[in-house]
Amino acid sequence: MLFTSSEKVEEYFRNIFVNKAFTSATAVDFECGITVTRELSTFIYKEIKSITKKWYLMAESMKYDRVAMYQVAKVNDPDVLLPTKWYQNTMHISKKRIKKS
To answer: If 78 and its partner were Cys, which of 17, 21, 57, 84 is the partner (CB 3.0–4.6 Å)?
Structure first.
């Protein structure tokens, strides 16, 4: 489903709510905020705070201190910033626990 106007996107998101949202970003800079390269992504990020209880942003270290074309949020907007390396290690441990069960 491709939307061409922000009104249609906002209308679509009014019907969605999730407990946790996990997203990534193209770049994270403390002055410029969270930025992405695709204009379509801007619609999702602008609505994310209103459709979730908790927003997790995953970004690997190489994405910090960089800037992309479109600003979508401030650095303090996500509830949790997860470094990708930490996330990958956690998933590895979780998979081991699941296999033991």
So the answer is: 57
